[in-house]
Amino acid sequence: MPFNIDIVTWIFIISIFFVISIFLTPRMIGLQARMGLGQLRKSVRELEDWAKESKRVALRAITKHGKPRRDVEREFNNFLEFFAIAPVSEDPVGVLRRLEHVLDVRKKRFEGVVARLAPKAEPEVAANLEMTFEGAMASYSLYRLVRHFTLLAEKTKSYQLVMLLQMQLPFLKEYGKAFVDATKTFVAGKPIGDGVGAMTATQLIGKARCLEPVENTIYAETKFDGRKLLVVKAKGPGGRVGKPGELIKRLITQRKVSRIIMIDAALKLEGDVSGQVIEGVGAAIGGPPTEKYKIEETSVKRKVPLDAILIKESFKEAIRPLNKRLARAVDVAAERVKQAVRERTKPGDVVIVAGIGNTIGIGQRTEELPKEFPSPPEKKKDELESDFLPLR
Q1: What residue spans define the domains of the chain?
Q2: Helix 69-79 crosses helix 95-117 at what angle (to 10 degrees)?
Q3: Considering only CA atoms, which of 277, 279, 284, 278 is closest in space to residue 299?
Q4: What is the CA radius of gyration of the chain?
Q5: pLDDT tens for each residue of 328-347
Q6: Which residue blocks in 189-259 are alpha helix, DSSP H?
Q7: How far is 309 from 294, CA to CA, in rounded Å?
Q8: For the domain bounded by 193-368, which CATH number is listed?
Q9: Which of 33, 54, 308, 311 could pair with 284 as two cysteines, CB 3.0-4.6 Å apart?
Q10: pTM
């Protein structure tokens, strides 16, 4: 009999706990959701402050070259939500040609807006102002996106949506701060981490004469160990990426090219060391696939091998001022290019060397390269994109 009483007692206690949990669990979830929403609102305010700071930096830079701030601000606000619609991809025939057309029209619109708002700006400064627009727009778009989902979670009382936003917040805030820094860097016209490929190309050009057969994209012919190097990069020192694919396509059709070597920045993984130079094969170029397609298509037709030399860096480093560690990596990349030319080509060959990336602050000659670079920022203990010593 006592044994039976113990079982009944335990069943009664468990039942009470079960009933209590049924009533308390929804309230606990609701409490967690309210706490999460409080954190999200705080983060939205931070992103809003960064977006406003980016806007102030851009407006201050634009008003130095033309119209009064009141006139500039009105059109600037209208342009902050400017967009480009990608072409239909369900019928893939010619989709990249259509995409290139859309991107060309988009660029012309940016150039037109900068010309109206800053009519006194020199061409290189105007190119930097276009990049400043991009930075401010990215910061504003990120703020609007996070605000949208925060308000949607609050309106629908969706705990799942709150959790998803909370999980993504560390990354989103890193991007938001990086966009502000990028906007300030564009205004100053300083080279950024994404310019490592262009900077490597300038080192290889030396004092050779540059030609511009494609708008905003130049090349120079120089010699190295009995080979002819056709060095390609975007025109600097304004903020441009040019059309390296179009220029490489033309050069391949005009010359008997033996090899193509491309240098670009590469997004490092968490734990990788920034500034590490790695090698591979293929067309090393990011962004929209239009230029990459031209390089791949032409190199396949002409059976020209493609080599890729990449410099690892984080997303933040790519849009922030070029630091000393990445500047040293540029010297290493230039030596890797020379080594590749010696080992994979023979005297008399014509080799295309393409430095890919944004050429802001980077001219065409070595004397136009910056001489001083900031030190890499010190890493905090639990900061994202931390570095570890490479395995040996």
Answers
A1: 24-188, 193-368
A2: 160
A3: 284
A4: 27
A5: 999 999 999 999 999 999 99
A6: 196-205, 244-254
A7: 19
A8: 3.40.50.10900
A9: 308
A10: 0.86
